[in-house]
């Protein structure tokens, strides 16, 4: 029995234990009854890590899709199609960089770059400790990126971290993350692998000896082969069996996974949660076909107003998902402002960290995470376990459009206020996104809200405040320490 068959069989036996509790069937109607986990709605902030052999390529050529563009001797689009001659701009810079560094792609291809990924400084305990210090409530690795390299001890593919680099990042991170009370998540980007290596077929990707990495030569829009379908599902099943993730985060490549492959997986994972009394979650990109029962994720984006269902955005501290020398255009203040805005609209933030190829998290990212954590230690009461209030926001700074890939960092002012509330509706939090001077006016807090007490988190003194026809007026104490944002806690007399 080969390794792939063994893996799928072992998982089938695991899922077979659920038969009596099989609550979900592989249909849209059944799957969409899956409930969003309470832990996710409470957590608000998580961290994951783009760290695979692609890190080597990104450090070399400054492109996160290095395994794709290193073969692009002419212009290719991102669906695995060569551009027509009229739009051809020549070889991608990653193609030229690779050839200069390693030689001809027919001889030294992605299969060989993978072997140069030999991290010596990876420390799962140190990573998890940093994520905890940052205030994350869920965390985990990119389990597999488009590059086809499994960041765990896999029996499904030989292209895995234990076989190639002698480490099992998933096993170590799961242990250390759970030890610190965080939920464990893993992200899967391998749906797009079907299209990812199409440019390689001009080079070493056409060699039958490496079909288990590149797959048999095909076009990007060809139907998935039986080999790919088995590989795609087998990796997911194996990972769930070995590492028991609370969330399986799915990247944009799900656009090419047909329902007859995706829906059975969703049903098995949701039933796995039922059988193990475990709240599990999956995600889907907002620009991809909706996956029933999944959390909608806005990549590097946000929404304008409160959503009925909790949602997610995945974003990164630096310009690139993988480690590079490019300087960040964000600081801790930008990330905290974004987090507050997201939470006020019923969202959660999944923040990316990009370790270098040796396994070190850059010092500037460490410092930003520690600053975020210090702020959350004081102000987390207004973030964690909260729900949206009657209004999410007031003030002049708003998104011009909602959706993914919002490039502009918004400059929030002291007139920009975001609101959250406790689950029992007895407390409202007004979070001011820059330091107020003199009197602060919370226009959305009317006399009908019947405020009983007003506190400023992190400040031990009493506040002068008054409810007027214009809203809640608060005198900002001059002696309050500088902060990224200021959380006012409003205790209500009779609830909302």
Number of domains: 2
Q: Based on helices, strands and strand pairing, what is the structural class?
A: alpha/beta
Sheet with the most strands, sense and barrel status? 8 strands, parallel, barrel
How many helices? The count is: 16
- CATH architectural name of the largest domain: Alpha-Beta Barrel
Could you say which overall geometry the principal axes of the C-alpha atoms support?
globular
Portion of residues in beta strands equals: 15-25%
Seen as an oligomer or otherwise, the chain set is single chain
CATH superfamily of the largest domain: Glycosidases
Report what the structure shows.
The protein is an alpha/beta fold. It has two domains: 3-58 and 108-380, TIM Barrel (Alpha-Beta Barrel); 393-403 and 414-492, Immunoglobulin-like, CATH 2.60.40. The protein contains 16 helices and 16 strands. The protein has helices at 3-16, 28-31, 38-43, 54-61, 66-69, 93-102, 110-113, 124-133, 161-165, 169-179, 193-196, 211-214, 226-243, 259-275, 332-344, 363-379; strands at 45-49, 138-144, 183-188, 247-250, 281-285, 295-299, 311-316, 347-353, 393-394, 417-421, 427-432, 439-442, 451-456, 465-468, 471-475, 486-492. The protein has an eight-stranded parallel barrel. Helix 1 crosses helix 13. The longest helix has 18 residues, at 226-243. The chain is globular. 49% of the residues are buried. The model is unreliable at 1-10 and 16-20 (pLDDT under 50).
